[in-house]
Specification:
Radius of gyration: 18 Å
Strand content: 5-15%
Largest sheet: 7 strands, parallel
CATH architecture: 3-Layer(aba) Sandwich
CATH class: Alpha Beta
Distance between the termini: 40 Å
Number of domains: 1
Shape: globular
Structural class: alpha/beta
Helix content: 40-55%
Order of helices and strands: HEHEHEHEHEHEHHHEH
Strand order of the largest sheet: 3-2-1-4-5-6-7
Amino acid sequence: MSRTVQQLFDLTGQVALVTGGSRGLGLQIAQALGEAGAKIMLSARKADELEMAVAQLQAAGIDARWIAADCSKEADLRRLANETLERMGPIDILVNNAGASWGAPAEDHPVEAWDKVMNLNVRGYFILSQEVAKRCMIERRKGRILNVASIAGLSGNGGHMKTVAYNTSKGAVINFTRTLAGEWGEYGITVNAICPGFFPSRMTHGLLEKLGADNMAQAAPLRRLGDDEDLKGLALLYASDAGKHITGQWMAVDGGVSAVHGG
């Protein structure tokens, strides 16, 4: 007999590692996976923010812990995978979410800033995915990898947006997702991407303040920005057996922005 919908979405007993998980979109995804029964390991750079995030999850009855790590550094990424394994067991779900942006005209964009964005947004995803797959997923012939990209990876910029490194990195994440899915499908590993639109967060605060949240919302057919629950459904679909036949895909969660503005 086939399983019920509730059984397909159930993550009880699984271990999920979420980078950039101390706030914003990463914490929202962690909350969704934890509500579905997964044990959560959060990672970010700042211990105090991680402590607050874990306390929030634990207050909701979620088994959550944290490890401080800089996901732009190879040694930190390998330590993160190793400590998660030691403390929680094999990783079933990896959410690559840690990211950075930088605003500057392309002709004046600092090379150091380009490297910072690329190291965190692309190189970090690769190193951690490789480490987790080799140590947890390939031999067990199962695993779920969720890469957080962006609608910025679906098109170029114009007007007020000057984020050439960020757009380039998120476009790379989408094709990285497709490539891993193609290579690792034989091991039962699915790899998918989420492309958020504008959500109020620390990364988007400056832009929202400059342009106005209401003006930004008007660019979306749904006339709204993302909120603190809009990524939960897609993240759980990708992470659970409800999405076991979905791999190499991206989906925009943007209120329809990419449908009318390219992508």
